[in-house]
Design goal:
alpha/beta; Rossmann fold; DNA polymerase, domain 1; two-stranded antiparallel sheet; 8 helices; 8 strands; 13% strand; EC 3.1.3.18; magnesium; carbohydrate metabolism
């Protein structure tokens, strides 16, 4: 295996348990439009494909967005969701165990680190600053940074080009099938975490190169030297 030089991390469900705040915002948005409330448990199943899909699922009360929801309603719901999410101040979100220690060790060892998330870009820097980890990342790419989100490899390919590394020298760390597929589509190494948001499906089913219960296990994979 080639020496690893670049490591990209998903955010929600990988570095950060953000569902408590996302659930508050989604619930307030759908209720404001006269739709039934959604619980934190439901939202844990709905996250992972970006805010538009999340709010569509919340309105539908299902992982499959109802085709009866019209574009105007979805647009209104998305605006409300963004407003309510900003109002939460992300106060109930928290980093998972060993996140800070792991990324700090990789940064100190000279690895290039990035965030690639399907979360709207406008929220991401503030969240990273709030948890005092933004200084570790050379690139922070939200879900609207490119035309297509993960599992499309567009963001990963952009990083490969920018940093002039081969796909074999990059790891994508995530908790969902979308992260694993994005890595595969870019030809990169995939590191799947079991504790995040993957619509109730074991991350091992997506067949990442590595499966781990703890992000600190990233420090001991082949190609990384700390």
């Amino acid at each position: 295996m080639a020496e690893i030089k670049l490591i990209a991390f998903d955010l929600d469900g990988t570095l950060l348990d953000s569902v408590p705040d996302l659930a508050v915002a989604a619930d307030q948005a759908v209720q404001a439009l006269g739709y039934p409330c959604v619980s934190e448990e439901q939202v844990r199943e709905y996250v992972g494909n970006g805010a538009d899909v999340l709010i569509g699922r919340a309105l539908s009360q299902d992982i499959a967005v109802s085709p009866t929801l019209d574009a105007e309603l979805l647009h209104k719901a998305r605006i409300l969701f963004d407003d309510f999410y900003a109002e939460t101040g992300h106060q109930h979100s928290s980093l998972y165990p060993n996140v800070v220690e792991t990324i700090a060790a990789l940064y100190a060892a000279g690895y290039t680190l990035a965030v690639i998330t399907n979360k709207p870009s406008k929220f991401v820097p503030h969240i990273l600053e709030q948890h005092n980890i933004i200084q570790y990342f050379t690139d922070v790419l939200g879900g609207d940074a490119f035309e297509k989100k993960k599992p499309n490899p567009m963001a990963l390919n952009w990083l490969l080009d920018k940093h002039q590394v081969s796909a074999e020298q990059m790891v994508m760390v995530g908790d969902s099938k979308n992260d694993v597929l994005a890595a595969k589509n870019a030809g990169c190494i995939s590191f799947g975490l079991t504790y995040g948001y993957n619509h109730g499906e074991p991350i091992a089913n997506a067949e990442p190169n590595y499966v781990a219960d703890d992000i600190k296990d990233l420090l001991s994979i082949e190609g990384i030297e700390i």
